[in-house]
Amino acid sequence: MLIAGNWKMNTDLPGAAKLAEEVVEALGDPGPVQVAVCPPFVSLDAVFGALRGSSVKLGAQDMHFEEGGAYTGEVSAAMLRSVGCTYVILGHSERRQYFGETDEHVNKKVRQALAHELVPIVCVGETLKEREAGQERHVVKGQVERAVESVVLSDPARLVVAYEPVWAIGTGKTASPAQAQEMHAYIRRLLAEFLGEHLAGNIHILYGGSMKPANADELLSQKDVDGGLIGGASLQAGAFAAIVAAGKSQS
Ligand code: PEP
Predict the structure, then answer these.
(1) Cα of 191 to ligand 1 centre, how many Å?
(2) The whole model's pTM is what?
(3) Top-tier CATH class for 2-61+73-250
């Protein structure tokens, strides 16, 4: 079970350090649940410091696929490693929607992250229009297939997939537990097809989209839901800790 908080473009430097401290305190012992927080780039170093001595890992929200060089404004995998990142969120729907991120970019980023021993949290998911047109499996299949193209993986812990239906992100609408389970089982079958049965069985597939303490139990109790990627609720230490506690009770 993995619960990761995506803080998006929220918190300034002192606010991020404070939130990280509050998360560590609110969590107590997360038991077998792996926990990560993904603050904005400028706060990664400070949050890494605030997490020291706890089991909470650090993640970034994006990165560039090149090693380095003339890419103004970008951040590389090696830079993320140097500030203590374990995870990096890739292909978030907000990156795809607002910043023109394509499946090809996501694939290059996944391969670059793996080459630098970062664990990519690859986000996939359909829009409302695509679901209403009955296209959700087709869309998700394309995203998963292209994200893992040419990826060589020997350890399932090196890759995480997050199913985030776009219509459920930040909207208060959540996929029903049955809808989540159905898509997660489908994603696992796709991963088995592309990466092999053994790896697929052990890759964490997270659900993301308005997960909060009130619905976490039901979602996390689904067989193929191995955790959550949490946006809004991860900005309140108490709510985030309650979701981790729900994960703990399901582990
Ligand atoms: C997200 O953006 O990854 C997300 C799941 O957001 P929220 O929980 O706010 O819907």
Answers:
(1) 23
(2) 0.97
(3) alpha beta
